[in-house]
Specification:
3 domains, 9 helices
Length: 198
C-alpha cells in the first residue's frame, strides 16, 4: 500500500470520512448537520464561569461571616469590651469594698444605732430591732449571692474571650484552603453557654 502524498491537496479519506459520506448518501445525516461547527463541551465552556461563581460564593460567605461577627461584636460590646468590663469591675469592686467595710463595722454600727441622738432616749420596741437584723441578714445573703454570680459571670467571660481567637483562626484556615461552609445563623438571642457547648 502506497503512503499518501503529504503534498497532495486532497488526501484519501479515512474510515470515519468514508462512513460519514455513506451516511450522507443514504440520507441518515445531511451535509448541513455535518457543517455545524463543533461546540465546546458544556463542562469546559462553563468551567471558568463555574469557577467565578464559586469564588464569588466564597467571597459572599466570607463577607456574611464578617458581618455576623461585627453584629455579634456590636451586640455584645457592653459585655465583652475591655473598657466596659473595666468600668463594671471597678464599680463592683468599690461596692464590694464598701459592703466589706459595713460588714466589718457591723457591731459598731449596731451600737451607734442603739445610742440615742442628742441625748434623747426614744423607746423602740424589740420587734422592730429583730426585723432590722433580719433585713440586714437578708441583704448580706443577697450580696454574697451577687458576688458569687459576678465571679461566675467573670469566669464565663474569660472562657468566651479565650474562644474568640480560636474561632477566628479556624475561619482563616477554612478560607485559606478554599473550604466553603454553609452560612451559620448567628443571632444575638443565643445564650453564650450554648455557643461554648457547641
Amino acid at each position: 500500500m502506497a503512503s499518501p502524498n503529504p503534498w497532495d491537496p486532497a488526501p484519501a479519506p479515512n474510515g470515519a470520512g468514508l462512513l460519514l459520506s455513506h451516511f450522507v448518501a443514504s440520507g441518515i445525516v445531511t451535509q448541513e448537520m455535518l457543517n455545524i461547527p463543533k461546540k465546546t463541551a458544556p463542562c469546559f465552556m462553563n468551567f471558568s464561569k463555574l469557577q467565578q461563581i464559586t469564588n464569588m460564593q466564597a467571597e459572599i460567605y466570607q463577607k456574611n461571616l464578617e458581618i455576623e461577627l461585627l453584629k455579634l461584636a456590636k451586640d455584645t460590646a457592653d459585655i465583652v469590651h475591655p473598657f466596659f468590663l473595666a468600668q463594671k469591675c471597678q464599680t463592683l469592686q468599690s461596692m464590694n469594698n464598701h459592703l466589706e467595710a459595713v460588714l466589718k463595722e457591723k457591731r459598731s454600727l449596731r451600737q451607734r444605732l442603739l445610742k440615742p441622738m442628742c441625748q434623747e432616749n426614744l423607746p423602740i420596741e424589740a420587734v422592730y430591732h429583730t426585723k432590722a437584723f433580719a433585713k440586714m441578714d437578708i441583704l448580706v445573703t443577697e450580696t454574697e449571692e451577687l458576688v458569687e454570680n459576678i465571679l461566675k459571670w467573670r469566669k464565663q467571660q474569660n472562657e468566651v474571650s479565650s474562644y474568640i481567637p480560636k474561632i477566628l483562626a479556624e475561619e482563616n484556615y477554612l478560607h485559606k484552603h478554599d473550604i466553603i461552609m454553609p452560612p451559620l445563623p448567628f443571632t444575638s438571642t443565643v445564650p453564650i453557654q450554648t455557643i461554648i457547648a457547641k
